[in-house]
Amino acid sequence: MLFRALMDRLIGTNDAFSDEDTHTQSRLSDEAITSLMQAVLQLLSTDVDVDQVKAEVVFPALQLLQRVQPPSNMSERIQHSVLRLASSRQWLVRDKAAKTYSTLVSAKDRVSCIARLIRHEARTQNEVHGNLLTAKYLVERQGKNFSTEGKLGGSCSVYKPLTVTDMDTLMNAIQSRIDDLLYDNACPLTQAAFVDIQNAFFYSAIQKQRYLFGKFSLIFDQVYSDIMEYQAQDGLPLRI
Hints:
The chain is mostly helical. 68% of the residues lie in helices and 0% in strands. The chain folds into two domains: 1-104, no CATH class; 107-240, no CATH class. The termini are far apart.
């Protein structure tokens, strides 16, 4: 309750514990945010063994990062600290860290980050699981673009539709690990996480096709309307 009250006070929202991962406009100055992020780094315990990290200590920091974007000069250190937690032996910490990390990666870097996480040769199954969870959340965030683009009233830097090259990059990364992460994998958790990535990827691909078809339909309707209007003005016979 105390942390929720603090979040409401700092970032001006009463839904600090929402699962939504959109960043909120902060009431704090840039200097205050920098100081806050330094405290966040301490909470993330970069000098403590990741398996010894306590969930009740890192959760407030991770929750805050989902709501407030860190300054650019601290972004890399914070991302490194968060991704490190995704290899924790505690499933809840892995999942929370993975979801938080996905909110910290810029749209232009998502595809390369997803491919890197999938291809990464982890040392433990916990690290594999954390990397795959993170990749899944990044793919899901990318897939949301197609249901929201065109409704935002202009371009927005956080929205970057998947290109054909992006799709090829992700497909190649998935195919490169399908044997060791699916067919030859003895761990059901990481098997399931890998399947979840494939499902998220194919859902994004379907959304892309729907998005492109929707744009084509709008263009076709506009051209058809212009032709009909031109024919009506010139007294030409209307042909359907």
